Amino acid sequence: MMFTDTHTHLYDEQLTAEEDILMQRSLDAGVSKMYMPNCDSGTAAEMMRLAKKFPDNCYPMMGLHPCYVKDNYVQELAIVEDWLKQEKFYGVGEIGLDYYWDVTHVPQQVMAFEQQIDWALQYDLPIIIHSRESTQDCINIVSKKQKGSLRGIFHCFSGTLEEAKQIIDLGFYLGIGGVVTFKKSSLPDIIQNIGIGNLVLETDAPYLAPVPYRGKRNESSYIPLIADKISDILALPVAEVARITNENAQKVFRN
Questions:
Q1: pTM for the whole thing?
Q2: In angstroms, what CA-CA distances link 191 with 3, 131, 195, 214, 251?
Q3: CA dist list (Å): 75 to 46, 78, 101, 105, 177
Q4: Cis preceding-peptide flag for 37 (omega within 30 of 0)
Q5: Angle at CA 37, nearest 5°, toward 31 and 40?
Q6: d(CA 244, CA 238)
Q7: Beta bridge partners of 95
Q8: Each residue of 89-146: pLDDT tens digit?
């Protein structure tokens, strides 16, 4: 079986010290494609280094993460735009809104989100959306921008069933990671209601490791644990979960 990790921060310093070991573990687990979202200007160079080192497995995306939207966001966006002009990327991300950590720059987050959606449309790239405690506002912005060609993933989906249905109606996908394995997660009930047709797998490594590694460093080789949980929820063979989520990822990234 082959799997796709649609969201992993392989360039994080928690992972790069063992990048060769982690890559081999991922390949041994059947995880052959790993998509890397950017955070800000400080992470781009290391992300691109990994993309060049593992060109058959690591696929970079370019964006300004909402948690990194500060007073200098205009300059940061200019750097994102320059990267998009110069290199090949597989998505615009990680972009969106975050109301959990700091709401000081929410207006700037909104402007950055909308600008980066416009670039995604310009370059015909998917968007990878961070929507922590802001899912409905992100849906509303995507809905306003959706004219039929916008595509992407609501990364680490943590919304309601109604929000999940709105996202699917917009033609978007839900990124499902380690949280689905947590005891108090509401995701199993939501997945039972919506099925697998708009799901993709992700780790968000090094964060949000699935059970039994919860609280420890996450890595792409744990993707099969997430697939196993979805298999249990939907009473589908794991091989079918792998096949469908891979096909969904191909539809998003066209890769």
A1: 0.97
A2: 19, 18, 5, 21, 20
A3: 20, 5, 22, 15, 32
A4: no
A5: 150
A6: 10
A7: 129
A8: 999 999 999 999 889 999 999 999 999 999 999 999 999 999 999 999 999 999 999 9
Task: Give the Å distances, CA to CA, from 19 to 12, 58, 176.
Answer: 10, 12, 23
pLDDT digits (tens, 9 = 90+) for 17-66: 999 999 999 999 999 999 999 999 999 999 999 999 999 999 999 999 99
Element (H, E) at 175: strand 173-176
Give the whole-angstrom CA distance, residue 37 versus residue 64: 9
Structural tokens at position 130: 């961070």
CA 219 to chain centroid: 14
Contact by Cβ (8 Å): 190, 240: no
Preceding omega of 247 cis (within 30 degrees of 0)? no
Rg (C-alpha) for the chain, rounded Å, is 17
